User: Which sequence fits this backbone?
């Protein structure tokens, strides 16, 4: 399954990666703290699913907000740990001792950015669920819908563009 011939090297984190990891941590903490702050004010049932128009079409117990936060934390942690083993990633080119560090750094950077975007999606979702539940609204705000669409589009297309631009760049 894994190419045993790929070099295993320890990468040093640059300042940008450290800052992005802190942003992910803040997002994860927010997903736990924000619902906890308003927990006693929340109704027993809170919105848990939305249709394509952003309207609530399913409810769940208010404890499910913490399940959402746990899923977000596990996802962020898994991506964080995955970044520690770039030699197990799939690459569109052969990894050699000469190109390993560059390829590993670029792929780790991509996973880190994806982790930030996914963490932001969890923040938006937690924030909106709590606010909709408290205000008895029934729809995501227009700003969050566009932000979610932008993040999903970015998560979908950016890795492909990233790989095409970075991996095949001739130096």
Assistant:
């Amino acid at each position: 399954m894994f190419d045993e011939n790929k070099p295993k090297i320890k990468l040093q984190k640059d300042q940008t990666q450290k800052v992005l990891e802190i942003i992910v941590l803040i997002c994860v903490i927010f997903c736990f703290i924000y619902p906890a702050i308003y927990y006693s004010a929340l109704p027993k049932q809170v919105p848990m699913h939305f249709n394509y128009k952003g309207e609530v079409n399913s409810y769940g117990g208010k404890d499910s907000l913490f399940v959402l936060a746990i899923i977000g934390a596990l996802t962020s942690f898994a991506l964080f740990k995955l970044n520690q083993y770039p030699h197990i990633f799939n690459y569109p080119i052969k990894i050699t001792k000469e190109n390993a560090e560059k390829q590993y750094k670029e792929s780790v950077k991509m996973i880190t950015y994806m982790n930030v975007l996914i963490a932001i999606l969890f923040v938006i979702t937690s924030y909106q669920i709590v606010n909709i539940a408290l205000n008895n609204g029934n729809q995501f705000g227009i700003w969050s819908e566009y932000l979610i669409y932008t993040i999903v589009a970015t998560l979908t297309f950016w890795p492909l563009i990233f790989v095409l631009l970075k991996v095949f760049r001739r130096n």
Q: What stands out?
A: Residues 15-28+57-166 form one domain. The chain has one domain: 15-28+57-166.
